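User: quick one, fold this
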Amino acid sequence: MTAYAQNGYLDEAKRAFDDMPLRDIFSWTVLLQAYVDSSALDDAKLAFERIPGRNVVSWTCMVVGYAQSEDFDRCKKTFDTMPVRNVFSWTAMVVAASQHWSLDKARETFHKIPSWNAVTMNAMVQGFARNGLLRESRETFDRIPEKNVISWTSIVTAYSQNARLDEAKALFDDMPVRNLVSWTSIVAGYAWNGHGQKSTEMFRAMELQGEIPDEISFVNVLTGCSHGGLLRRGWVYFQSMQRDYSLSPGKEHYCCLLDLLARSGRLDEAEDLLASMPFAPDEVACKTVLAACGIYRDLERAIRVADVVLDDHAGSSDCYLLLRNIFCEV
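Assistant:
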């Protein structure tokens, strides 16, 4: 049952649960977590109400579920109803407030916590950074008594998100231990702030240190190539995913490559890639090529691409607007 639940096979997990001769709090919690991970919150709620002897883990699971679905009222009501809270339930509420509610609510919750630890303080580091409050983010980081790799990665990300790349890199260099997430954070910082060359340099350094990049790492380095106009290198990384790391490119990777081709004026290749993708092109992919058609005044290609996207997304006002603008300009 646990294997099914952890791999997203919800129906199979439910059948395994139903076939169990005896169920305990652990099996109920596995089922509850499976529902939450699948955003099946109505089913999660029904399961939660049936759990005999609900504990702090099952309560926290519901808080996280409502937070992820941005149902703030039920998230807060569930949290307030909890008979016992631990650091994980408090942290879940802080994260929910900082990401989906308001920083003031996150700060208010944070100051009510009986005792802070690195996990809770990391959540506030990220919350302050997400709202552009870099000074408060750094002050909270400095107060963490035992900083771990997550703490360090959070503050590196905070400076990167606020385009303070020199300081982000200095903090990254000071990290006592780095992992794939921290390496990806600095690659992303350079990529999303328009420093494509630096993002590829950091990606290469990561590989040389023995870290194995994952799908998220490749999204970020491909973004860096796109923003930096590094066409040849972008193709190399795209091909390296499968050849060197046995990773299958997803929609985000294809969209990065489409954007790179479009920015470089390689519209023939962009259109060919759009047609050969192993899944139906979505609106974002088609709009990327349409926008390039507008820049290069390629009306015939724009009409072909528009036919693709409007067949599946007939209500796309953005695509109609892009196509109309191309007609007006050509």
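User: anything notable?
Assistant: The chain has a mean pLDDT of 87.
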